[in-house]
Design goal:
186 residues; four-stranded parallel sheet; 8 strands; globular
Length: 186
């Protein structure tokens, strides 16, 4: 089976596909396309977000991240969808948790992580609070607006997706220490 994957940045996303391929036990081929594929740094700079833009952050081939306005990549993503369909993709996954306009069309199912999150989070935490980590400070307001309509209390902070793993590991270690201390206190 051929699976299409689209990143809003540049493909391939080896940082993502490595984990995904384990799920399919070698029974699938992932075909990747990116909204910024084939562009130079100078061309990408012209996509900087302006006032009112929906802000996206993604990874480039050199491992750096870039921030840009969604409107610049939507036509390129539509083209990537069409290319993946021509290559025989059975369905297409978006490698981005951002919200995309309904103008994107495909002949095969399009899987958007944001739609999964938007339906799952309220089931788990609607009357609770969540912490949202976004890659860019430019995304804090748009994330707060989105999640405030879904959960009771939301806190949004920005942090590099490439440093999140270290932060989570550090938090897990502290949580283990706190849990150990509480259990010893009882």
């Amino acid at each position: 089976m051929k699976i299409g994957a689209i990143t809003v940045g540049q493909s391939p996303r080896t940082d993502v596909t490595e984990d995904i391929m384990d799920i399919f036990n070698g029974k699938a081929e992932v075909l990747e396309k990116g909204g910024l594929d084939g562009l130079t740094s100078e061309q990408i700079e012209k996509f900087s977000p302006k006032e009112g833009d929906y802000v996206l952050v993604s990874r480039l081939n050199d491992g750096t991240s870039v921030t840009f306005g969604e409107r610049h990549v939507i036509p390129r993503i539509q083209h990537a969808i069409e290319e993946l369909e021509e290559q025989g993709a059975a369905f297409i996954m978006m490698f981005c948790t951002g919200k995309f306009p309904d103008t994107l069309k495909a002949k095969v199912p399009l899987i958007y992580p944001c739609e999964i999150l938007d339906r799952t989070v309220p089931l788990l935490t609607a009357a609770s609070s969540i912490l949202v980590v976004t890659p860019s400070p430019l995304q804090i307001a748009q994330s707060k607006k989105k999640w405030s309509g879904i959960v009771k209390k939301v806190k949004v902070v920005s942090g590099s997706p490439y440093g999140v793993q270290n932060a989570v590991q550090s938090m897990a270690w502290r949580s283990a220490i706190i849990f150990f201390w509480i259990s010893k206190s009882l």
